[in-house]
Amino acid sequence: PVLMIAKAKPTATATMTLNSVGVTFTDGETIYDVALRANINVPTLCYDPRLEAFGACRLCVVEVEGAHNPVASCTTATTPGMVVHTRTEAIMKHRRTLLELVASENPDTAVDPLRGFASQELNQLLEQHDVQPGRFQGQHSGSSNDDDNPFILRDYDLCISCFRCVRVCAEQEGDHAISMMNRGFEKQITTEFNGRLKESACTFCGQCVQTCPT
Known about the structure:
Layout: E1 13-18, E2 21-26, H1 31-37, E3 61-64, E4 71-72, E5 83-85, H2 89-105, H3 121-128, H4 164-171, E6 178-181, E7 188-191, H5 207-211
């Protein structure tokens, strides 16, 4: 008998223009994927490479010629001939305004480095974009949760509603131990029936802590 080995079908490639430079991409790649591969810095707060793209923070928006409005690069698929600009004056102003709004929700941006590398993400973005928190003042969302478990501090005063902890718990761990409740300034992370972590499906794996940007 002859063993037939199927050859892998070659991945189709095409070309687009990114910041005035022609780059190739493959089917299924997003603008953010291509920018990352081209070493072009596009900021994000809700993105985690292990998770499905979410497009909630809108920091990764870019200009696509022919589009009426900026698009989220993490959820926008590339197309042949697409022309993209990642650092126009309008885009940079948009990002600074978004970061000011996020910082206005987070009264303590000076996070101790000992809290972990991931917790420095918001601070780093504020510095990179020369954002001085304080232009937007008003009500803050979230409240600290007194949870008597010995492993995880649930401080909602630092929450920016990026959903990364909720999604990593569901998509990576399959636990679905936490979710988001309420809307607007009343929004916060919770467990089923708003109970304590040790009474939920939480296994204290620490993934939520690892992915948190604040």
